[in-house]
Amino acid sequence: MSDRSGFGHQTTADEVLDGIDLSGRLVLITGGASGLGHETARAMAAKGAQIIIAARDMEKGEAAMTAIHGSVPDAQIEVMQLDLADLDSIRAFTTLFLREHPRLDLLINNAGVMACAQATTKDGFEMQFGTNHLGHFLLTNRLRPALEASAKEGRKPRVVTLSSRAHHTAPVDLDDPNYKQATYEKWEAYGRSKSANALFALELDKRGRDTGLRSYAVHPGGIMTNLGRHLTDEDIAMLMARFSQSDDQPGFKTIPQGAATSCYAATAPELADIGGMYLEDCGQTFVNDDLKGDKAGQRSWIMDADVASKLWTLSEELVSEQFA
Known about the structure:
Blueprint: H1 13-16, E1 26-30, H2 35-45, E2 50-55, H3 58-71, E3 76-81, H4 87-100, E4 106-109, H5 127-142, H6 144-152, E5 158-162, H7 186-208, E6 214-219, H8 233-244, H9 255-258, H10 260-267, E7 278-280, H11 305-319
Helix pairs in contact: 4-5, 5-7, 7-11
């Protein structure tokens, strides 16, 4: 296996996976039709993984599958329809998935929406919290029988949930998750959802570790992808200025660089016996509660076990399902 000690900001997905054999591993990637999810699918398919792309738009998903076959001709890949902003869609997806795939080795919760105008999901949740967190919360828990089947076979399944450095913007609000009282602000709402993603990864790891399931949250870095489809010119200028001025994160990443930390969290041998952490630049990071800047590291609030447990209970209430 190649030297893994030099991974960092510029490491690519292919470099992370160098020397990793994913033959026989079943990988489900949400939002795999474009951007980071597409690159994660391609890179893992090239290492022998069987890939399932979950896509809201089947036409785009099938186009992504065709593109991956263009670079990985023998890729094992299929596309399934999933809308994370619709609980009925998630339930239908998971029912079909478990019927066809009783075992799941790696789940990459990659899909999301960022900084959109105020809107609600089909079920009435604030769009960013409902899609980014609640959608993946329900999806992951309904797929746990397949993940646990993998664990029973000693395959050490993992769940990787994409968070973001945007979690610095705001912690979760357990009292008003859907902006029923507070005035909506799109970046705050995005930050809340990304804090929720990290807290979910923390609590899932606590609940799954005894069965052999590990969970991680990932900050992929600043990347221009379809995730930014709601951004205004002013938003883009702000982000470009922020990243260009950051000493610890020199500029935007390419898509292959952005997919690297997801691939690292999903496969790194050095993470086999640890989980529940927030990763960036293909490695563990540190607590940084300097609220004056936007530097590397994680806010302490995403490692608050009590809040993570309360968020889990609230999420169960909101989706009307309970999970161990």
